[in-house]
Amino acid sequence: MRLLESDALVVVDVQNDFLPGGALAVPDGDAVIAPINRLASHAPNVVVTQDWHPSAHASFASRHSGRMPFETLALPYGEQVLWPDHCVQGSSGAELAPGLEVPRAGLILRKGTHPEVDSYSAFLEADRTTRTGLAGYLRECGVTRLVLTGLATDFCILWTALDARAEGFAVLLVEDAVRGIDVDGSVGRALETMAKVGVQRLQSQDIEA
Ligand SMILES: [Zn+2]
Questions:
Q1: Counting Cβ atoms within 10 Å, is residue 175 exposed (0-12), middle (13-18) or buried (19+)?
Q2: pTM surpassing 0.85?
Q3: Does 2 map to a domain?
Q4: What does the pLDDT look like over 83-134, one tens digit per residue?
Q5: Residues assigned a catalytic role
């Protein structure tokens, strides 16, 4: 298949802290960079997201005394997985991966910027009411279908895909351009959940330059 003018490549959170050696490393996370770079060299629209937290963000285990990373905690907006400190605004861990080549990106969307609310999704924060503005941006650009790539399959990719479908966008998940954290089988569940709402899976080689 070829990409159309109404397609947008969406590159989710390919940042140092999510790569091997980072604060919240996704296993094999750096494997997504090569296929993303190839797609980004010819995609008609490119959007990049960046997890971008203030220090002492509500999603950090360190913020809650006696709590450890990967535990869940009830926050005012719902259950929150607690994470190691990661992607703190202005830190080297929050920078886009140095190998990522997305010079044609029209938008770099920063999410998780509210101190008390997390945001896995690029569309809606974890309170499920605060909008990031991405849906409006994409519509104004004439985008109807997203080509979804990046990290991590079972969190930010999953929630971005579900919200994109709810907003009426078609979604293609590029399997070799995503990797997951996989907490107790969460990657498999995420793929099933996405399939149920009509997210289609393909390989980056299926997309012609
Ligand atoms: Zn985060």
A1: middle
A2: yes
A3: no
A4: 999 999 999 999 999 999 999 999 999 999 999 999 999 999 999 999 999 9
A5: 13, 111, 156
What does the block give as tokens for 89? 């605004």
pLDDT of res. 209: 81
Give distance in angstroms: CA of 129 to centre of ligand 1. Answer: 18
Measured in angstroms, how far is the CA atom of residue 46 from the centroid of ligand 1?
Answer: 21
Distance 118 CA to ligand 1 centre (A): 7
Residues 184 and 205: their CA atoms lie apart, in Å, by 30
Name the residue range of residue 68's domain.
7-206
CATH number at 197 reads 3.40.50.850
DSSP at 54: P
Number of domains in the chain: 1
Please spell the DSSP secondary structure of 103-128, one letter per residue: TT-SEEEEE--STT----SSSB-TTS
